[in-house]
Design a protein that fits this description.
Strand order of the largest sheet: 1-4-7-8-9-10
Strand content: 15-25%
Order of helices and strands: HEHHHEEEEEEEHHEEHH
Distance between the termini: 38 Å
Largest sheet: 6 strands, mixed
Oligomer: single chain
Amino acid sequence: MTFTESHYENAVLQLFQERLGYACVYGPDVERDYRSPLYEDALLPALQRVNPGVPVDALREAVYKLKNFESGTLLQKNMVFTDYLQNGVPVKYFENGGERSTLVYLLDFKNPANNDFTVANQWTVIENSEKRPDVILFVNGLPLVVAELKSPSREETDASAAYRQLRNYIHEIPSLFIYNALCVMSDMATSKAGTITSGEDRYMEWKTTDGGYENTQHAKFDTFFEGLFEKIVFWTL
């Protein structure tokens, strides 16, 4: 039996679900606004968990700011989001008749288990056109990683084709990449990660799950995904 791109996608999803403990959702099963790349069903509950005691109005203001960035380039918006991710979203809200301000934190860095880790496949985003990336990793409803997979059995496609597809996504559905921390291209034999500004030659492999490198030219795909996206390791990137 030919190992198709669909088989590879399912193998990656199974790895995230069974070995790494991520929740798994199939994009078409989630009722949502396709013009927003966020997984909003997970976002507000996660913010409530990460920010106990913060009024819901403040949390909703943070969600509003996450969905409405001021004008600027994709890179500028990504930099603003990265600051939110690292330092919290500054918000103002009214309480007892007065205006107050606080920071709404998007992630619980001290306790990774307090966050929501979800892997989704076939997550539709509509912007300049309609696109459906293979795999997206959400943390607290934020699409931090986009992975494009190519069939290991088709000679005409490879990891370079996955890179070109990622660049196409950045052009066609840039709003998804406002929240991006890493892009992944993989054809099973070769798996590499980079950022939205990385050229293909700047994408890097990850050859360890425990600090000891595999003695191979290319790490196996499971070593790459387990090593890079195990929750504790992912947290330190």
